[in-house]
UniProtKB/TrEMBL annotation, chains A, B:
Residues 111-130 have a biased composition (Basic and acidic residues). Keywords: DNA-binding, Transcription, Transcription regulation. Residues 1-95 form the HTH arsR-type domain. This is Metalloregulator ArsR/SmtB family transcription factor. SUPFAM superfamilies: Winged helix' DNA-binding domain. Gene3D superfamilies: Winged helix-like DNA-binding domain superfamily/Winged helix DNA-binding domain. Residues 103-130 are annotated as: Disordered. CDD domains: HTH_ARSR.
DNA sequence: GGGTCAATTCAACAATACATGAATAGTTGA
DNA sequence: TCAACTATTCATGTATTGTTGAATTGACCC
C-alpha cells in the first residue's frame, strides 16, 4: 500500500452512502450482497448506487461477481485494512496519539490536547528572520 | 466520534497535499510547524496551503495557534486516531480482515481473497422473485 | 425468441472542490 | 505611523464529482 492507493481509498470513503455501504457489507463477509438488495437496504436509486459501487470497486474497496441475474458485492477487507494500516503506521509513523485513540474508539475524544508553548516556538520571537 | 465526523476526516485526508501535510506534521508533535515553513517544505503556494490548512482545521485534524508573526499548526492525533478507530471498530465492527491488515501494513495486500460461491447465493438461482 | 427482472451506462444538469494571483489583515520593530 | 514580514481572504476560472431519469445490456424462464 502506497500513498496514492491509500488516497483513493480515503476518497472512496468520504461519502455518506459509501460508509453506509461498508457498514452494511462488512458483516456479510465474502458472500456480499446483491446490488438490488443493497439499494433497497440503503434506500438508494439503482443508478446512483451503481455509480458508488463502481467507484468503490475502482478504489479496490469492493469486489464483485455475478451470480445468476444478481451481482454480489463484498468488501475487500484487506484493502480497507491496508489503507488504515498505511495511515497509522507509515504516514503517522505509529504515533502514540494516533495509535492509542484508534483502539478503543467510543471513549474520550471531545477534549483536544491543546498544545502549550514550547521552547522551540518561543524562539520565534527572537528570530524573526529564521 | 460518529459517522458524520469520521466522514469529514476522511474527506480531509482524500488529497495528496493533505496526506503530505499529516506526514510532515505528525513528527513535530504538539509543537507543530509554522505555515510558512510548511509551505516551503511541501512546495506549496501560501494561499493554496492556507486553503488546505483551514479545511483540515475545520475537519478537526489540525489545531493552530499564533506565536508572534507565525501560525503554528499541529496534528490533532486524537481526532485522527478517533476516525480510524471509528472506521475499524464501529463501521467495520472489528472485522478480522480489516483489523489484521491494518496492523502490519507493509506486508501482504496484493492478493485479493476472492470469495467463493456460498449456499446463500446459490439460492438465488431458485428464488428469482425473492 | 419474447417477456421479465437485475444492473449498468448514458446524457444532462447541479453542486463542490481546486488552483491561481491579487488584495487584505495582523504582527513586529524602528 | 511606516516598512517588512507572515498568513489569510477574495475573485476568478477550471475540473471534478454527484444526482437524476431514460435507455441499454445481460441473464433467466417460459
Amino acid at each position: 500500500m502506497d500513498r496514492s492507493k491509500a488516497l483513493v481509498v480515503f476518497a472512496a470513503l468520504a461519502h455518506e452512502a459509501r460508509l453506509d455501504l461498508i457498514r452494511l457489507l462488512v458483516p456479510m463477509g465474502d458472500q456480499g450482497m446483491a446490488a438490488g438488495e443493497i439499494a433497497r437496504s440503503l434506500g438508494l436509486a439503482a443508478s446512483r448506487l451503481s455509480f458508488h459501487l463502481s467507484a468503490m470497486e475502482q478504489a479496490g474497496l469492493l469486489v464483485s461477481r455475478r451470480v445468476a441475474r444478481n451481482v454480489f458485492y463484498a468488501v475487500n477487507t484487506q484493502r480497507l485494512g491496508g489503507a488504515v494500516g498505511w495511515l497509522v503506521e507509515d504516514c503517522c509513523m505509529k504515533h502514540p496519539g494516533v495509535v492509542g485513540c484508534s483502539r478503543g474508539t467510543g471513549g474520550a475524544q471531545s477534549e483536544l490536547d491543546k498544545p502549550a508553548e514550547s521552547p522551540a516556538e518561543a524562539e520565534t520571537r527572537n528570530t524573526p528572520k529564521g
